[in-house]
Amino acid sequence: MGLKALDYETMNENVKKVQYAVRGELYLRASELQKEGKKIIFTNVGNPQALGQKPLTFPRQVVALCQAPFLLDDPNVGLIFPADAIARAKHYLSLTSGGLGAYSDSRGIPGVRKEVAEFIERRDGYPSDPELIFLTDGASKGVMQILNCIIRGQGDGVLVPVPQYPLYSATISLFGGSLVPYYLEETANWGLDVNNLHESVAQARFKGITVRAMVIINPGNPTGQCLSEANLREILNFCYQENLVLLGDEVYQQNIYQDKRPFISSRKVLMDMGPPISKEVQLVSFHTVSKGYWGECGQRGGYFEMTNIPPKTVDEIYKIASISLSPNVPAQIFMGLMVNPLKPGDVSYDQFVRESKGILESLRRRARIMTDGFNSCKNVVCNFTEGAMYSFPQLRLPPKAIEAAKQAGKVPDVFYCLKLLEATGISTVPGSGFGQKEGVFHLRTTILPAEEDMPEIMSSFKKFNDEFMAQYED
Ligand SMILES: Cc1ncc(COP(=O)(O)O)c(CN[C@@H]2CONC2=O)c1O
Q1: 83 C-alpha vs ligand 1 centroid, how far in Å?
Q2: Residue 223: left if φ>0, alpha if ψ -120 to 50, beta else—which one?
Q3: Test site for ligand 1: of 44, 291, 328, 334, most ligand atoms within 8 A of the Cβ
Q4: Cβ of 128: how many Cβ atoms within 10 Å?
Q5: Is the CB of residue 138 below 6 angstroms from any atom belonging to ligand 1?
Q6: Which in 46, 136, 156, 437 has the greatest CB count within 10 A?
Q7: How far apart are CA 290 and CA 286, in angstroms?
C-alpha cells in the first residue's frame, strides 16, 4: 500500500514547518521529569490558575447559575448566591438562544457584543459598533481568523516584533505566509524604533515580499514593555504611509505594573489622530478573558474589534466564522462579565474590587521581586516587567557554555534552560522560541508563581545560575 494522507511524509508541509516553543522541548522534558516524580514549577505558560491564582468569585457564581438554571428555581438559591449574581445570570440566560447548551450566532451573542462595544466606548471615549465585534474562542482563534484573511501565500508578509509571542510566527507559517521581523531594542527597555520598521519593510520588499500587515503586542509578550502614546502614533502613521493593516494584540491591557506608561488602546490613539488616518488605517484589536486579573485561560473567551474594515470584508469574516458554528457560549458570559463589571453599590462590588485589586497588586510586587532577583545574578540582566505576565532576562553566556551547548547539539539558551530544569525543576521557555538578536540569549519565565514562593524560586535560580556561569567562565 502507498503512503496515506495522514502519514507524516505526505502531510501538509506548512503544518510540519510550524514551531510553538511555549509548549516545546522544555515543556515536554519538564512533563517527563514530572512523571518521574520530580517537582516541577511550570513557569512556561501564562496560566495563572495553574499556579494557584483563585478565580474571581462573582463571575463563577454567575456562570454556575447559567450552567445550572434549575438552581434559579430553588427557593433557597438566595441563601447561596448573592442577588446580583442571580440577576446577572437571568440577564445572560435571556440573551442566549436556549441557554449555554445552544449555539449562539457565529459572531457571538449580540447582547454580549453590545457590552463589549460599551466597554470600548467607556475606555476610549469613541463610539464602537457591536456589528464590528466578533467573540472568539480565546484571542488566539481571532488572531488566526484575521491572519487567514490577510495571508494569500508565501509572497505575503506580516511585520512581527522580535521577540514575539509565537502564536504569530506559528500562524504565519501555518498559512504559508512570510514573517517580516522588526527588532525591539532591549537597551531601550524593548522600545520600538520606527526606523527599524522602514528598514524591515524595505528588506522584505527587496526580497519580493508584499508586506500587508503589522502586529503589535501591547503590553509585550515576552518583553513586558508598554507602548507610549507617542510610539502608537508613530506606528499608526507608519501603517498609514505603508498601507498596512494593524493587528493590535492588547490581551494584557489590565496587566500594568508601572504608572509612567498606563495602557492606551491603539483604537483610541487612531481616533485621536483624526482624518485622514483615523478613516484610513485598518485596525483589528484583540482581547481575552485569559489574562488581566481574570486569568480564565481555560474558559477560552476572547474578542476582536474591527476598525475601518469594509462591510464586504466583514461579511467574509462572518462567513468563515460560521464554519465553526458558534464561539464557546460559557466563555461569552465570562467576556460579558469582564467588560461589564460590577458597579459601586452592587452587593458583590466590594468583594470583586478586593479580589481583583489583590491580584493586580501582588502581580506588581512579583514583577519587581523577579526583575530584581534576575539582576542580582551573575551575567544576567533583566528589564523591568512594565506589563503582561513575563520576565525575559538576558543570559550573558560565556563562550565555553556556548561551546558546550554546541557539543550537546543544543541552541545555547535551550542548553541553559534544560540544565536549569534538571537542577531546579523550574520550567521556562528559551528565548530562541520568541526570536532574538543573533548571539544574544534569553529565557522567558512568568511572574505567576505564588508570591510566598517567589523568594525561594529566585534563590534557587540564583544558586543554579551562578554555579553554571562559574563552571563555564573563561
Ligand atoms: C500576546 C498574546 N496574545 C494572545 C494570546 C492568546 O490568548 P487566549 O488564551 O485568549 O487565546 C496570548 C496567550 N499567552 C500564552 C499562553 O500562556 N503563555 C503565553 O505566552 C498572548 O500572550
Answers
A1: 34
A2: alpha
A3: 291
A4: 21
A5: yes
A6: 136
A7: 12
Query: Quick one: pLDDT at residue 42?
Result: 86
The terminus-to-terminus CA distance of the chain in angstroms comes to 58
Indicate the pairing of strand 394-395 with strand 441-446.
Answer: antiparallel
Q: Is 52 left (phi over 0), alpha (psi -120 to 50) or beta?
A: left
Cβ proximity of 100 and 358 under 8 Å: no
What is the rounded CA–CA span in Å between residue 43 and residue 52? Answer: 12
Cα of 140 vs centre of ligand 1, distance in Å, is 7
Short-list 152, 179, 151, 148, CA closest to 166: 179
Sign, CA dihedral 410-413-416-417, equals negative
Cα 211 to Cα 38: distance, rounded to the nearest angstrom: 47
ipTM of the complex: 0.99
Rounded Cα–Cα distance for residues 454 and 451 (Å): 5
387 CB under 6 A from ligand 1? no
DSSP string, 15-80: HHH---GGGSHHHHHHHHHHHTT---EE-SS--GGGGTPPPPHHHHHHHHHHH-GGGGGSTTHHHH
Does the C-beta of 217 come closer than 6 Å to ligand 1? yes
Chain segment 431-455, per-residue pLDDT in tens: 998 999 999 999 999 999 999 999 9
CA-to-CA distance for 208 and 123, rounded, in angstroms? 40
